[in-house]
Design goal:
four-stranded parallel beta sheet, binds ligand V47, alpha/beta, TIM Barrel
Length: 375
C-alpha cells in the first residue's frame, strides 16, 4: 500500500511538472518499480522537452596523452610515463587530427586526456589555440573540471583566470567528465586525489558565470549505491537551479575490463535504462539527456530514446577511454548509420552543433541554424 501510494504520488508529480524528491528518486531505483512504468514517465518528460527529436552531431575525440598523474581505479586508459603504451601527441599530430575532423565534416572536437607529469599549463592552452587558429569553425569542447583544477594547481591562478585564458585561446565549451560520483564515501575510494565534488561544482559554476556552457556526467555501476546516485543528481540539479549552464547530462555506465575494478560485472541493460529514466525524471531543469552509444551499445542506446534520452552524442572517431575499458561498439558511425539507428526507434534524427543549434548541410558545406528549443 505504501508502495502504491508513493508510485501514485510520483506519477502525479511528473504529470503536474512538479519536482521529485530524493526519496522519490531512491524509490524509483527499487527493482519492484517496473521498468515499463519508468519508461512511460520519463518519456512524458522527454517529449515535453524535446518532442520527437533525437539529436546527434558529427564529432571526433582527441586524447592528446594517456600519461596521467592520477590513478583513478576505474580508468583503463591512463598510463605511467614509462609504460609501453604511454603516448604524447605532437602539435603536428594534433593539427592533423583537426584537418581530418574538418575533412570528415565534424562540427565538434571533444578534447580530454591524461594529466601528464611533464607537460606545463601552456601546452594545454596552446593546443586549443593552434587548433582554433587553424580550424576556427570546429567547436572545441575541451578539458574537464579535473583538468581545470590541475591547471590551477600548476599555475596558482584562479579558476576564472584559467577559463578566461582558455576561452580567449578558442575553447567553446566544456565536457562533463570527471564528475564520477560526488559523495566522498565513493569518491575517496575511486579517485582520492583528484578534484573533489566541491571543486568540480565550483569550476562549472565559474564556467557558467563566464558564459561557457558545460555538460555533466555520472559514472554508475561500480561501488556506489542508489543513495549515492541520487545525491549526485541532486547536487547537479542544485547547481543548474543557480546557473542554468548545463546543456546535457550523460549517465556513464562503468566498463570494468582492464581497470582496478575488473571483478565487477558491467551494469545490465535494465540498469542502464533505469538510470536513464531516473536521470530524466530527477533532472527536471536540464534540457537534454544523452545516451552515449559508445558506452551503452547501439541497441541499449536505441531503447534509451524511449527512456528519457533525446541525444545519442555523435558519429565519434578516435574514442579511446571506453574502448580501452572493453567497449565492443564500433569506432565510428557514419551519418547514415546514426540516422538509421535513430529512425528505427520512431524518433526524428536532427543534426545539432555542440550548442544545440540545428545544422543544415549542402554538399560538403554546413551552416548553423536556429537553436532547437527544448520545451
Ligand atoms: O570522467 C573512465 C568515464 C569519463 C571509464 O560531455 C569510464 O558530452 C566507464 O565524460 N568505464 C569521460 N566510464 C567521458 C565523458 C564524456 C563522454 C561522452 C560525452 C561527454 C560530454 C563526456 O568517462 C570519465 C569517467 O567518468 N570513464 N573510465 C570506464 N572504465
Amino acid at each position: 500500500m505504501v508502495y502504491e501510494t508513493q508510485l501514485a504520488s510520483i506519477r502525479d508529480k511528473v504529470r503536474a511538472g512538479e519536482r521529485l524528491s530524493a526519496a522519490d528518486g531512491e524509490f524509483l531505483y527499487r527493482d519492484d518499480v517496473p521498468l515499463g512504468e519508468l519508461a512511460v514517465l520519463a518519456n512524458e518528460v522527454r517529449e515535453r522537452k524535446n518532442g520527437n527529436f533525437a539529436y546527434y552531431n558529427i564529432n571526433t575525440h582527441l586524447n592528446p596523452t594517456n600519461v596521467c598523474v592520477y590513478r583513478c581505479v576505474f580508468c583503463a586508459f591512463r598510463s605511467d610515463l614509462r609504460e609501453e603504451k604511454a603516448y604524447l601527441m605532437s602539435d603536428e599530430a594534433i593539427l592533423a587530427r583537426g584537418q581530418e575532423a574538418v575533412d570528415a565534416g565534424c562540427t565538434e572536437m571533444h578534447i580530454v586526456g591524461g594529466l601528464h607529469h611533464k607537460m606545463k599549463y601552456d601546452w594545454y592552452v596552446n593546443m586549443i589555440r593552434i587548433l582554433h587558429d587553424a580550424y576556427p569553425r570546429l567547436h572545441l569542447k575541451g578539458w574537464t573540471a579535473v583538468e581545470i583544477n590541475w591547471f590551477a594547481h600548476l599555475t596558482k591562478k584562479t579558476y576564472a583566470e584559467i577559463l578566461e585564458e582558455l576561452v580567449d585561446a578558442g575553447l567553446g565549451s566544456m565536457p562533463g567528465g570527471g564528475a564520477e560520483i560526488f559523495h566522498p564515501e565513493v569518491r575517496d575510494r575511486l579517485c582520492e586525489h583528484k578534484a573533489d565534488a566541491h571543486n568540480w561544482i565550483e569550476i562549472h559554476r565559474t564556467a557558467h558565470r563566464l558564459g561557457l556552457r558545460t555538460n555533466c556526467t555520472m559514472l554508475y555501476g561500480h561501488i556506489e549505491n542508489h543513495f549515492h546516485r541520487i545525491d549526485h543528481l541532486i547536487r547537479l540539479r542544485e547547481l543548474q537551479d543557480e546557473t542554468g549552464g548545463f546543456q546535457t547530462f550523460i549517465p556513464l555506465a562503468f566498463h570494468p575490463d582492464n581497470t582496478g575494478l575488473s571483478e565487477i560485472r558491467k551494469p545490465s541493460a535494465a540498469m542502464d535504462l533505469r538510470t536513464m529514466a531516473v536521470s530524466r525524471l530527477m533532472l527536471d531543469n536540464i534540457d537534454h539527456i544523452k545516451a552515449y552509444w559508445i558506452m551503452l551499445g547501439i541497441e541499449t542506446a536505441q531503447a534509451a530514446l524511449h527512456y528519457g534520452a533525446d541525444d545519442l552524442d555523435g558519429t565519434v572517431r578516435h574514442e579511446l577511454i571506453y574502448h580501452d575499458a572493453g567497449a565492443q561498439t564500433p569506432e565510428v558511425l557514419s551519418v547514415e548509420e546514426i540516422a538509421r539507428v535513430i529512425s528505427e526507434t520512431g524518433r526524428e534524427p536532427v543534426e545539432r552543433d555542440t550548442l544545440y543549434r540545428r545544422v543544415q548541410r549542402e554538399g560538403t558545406d554546413w551552416q548553423v541554424g536556429e537553436a532547437i528549443l527544448a520545451s
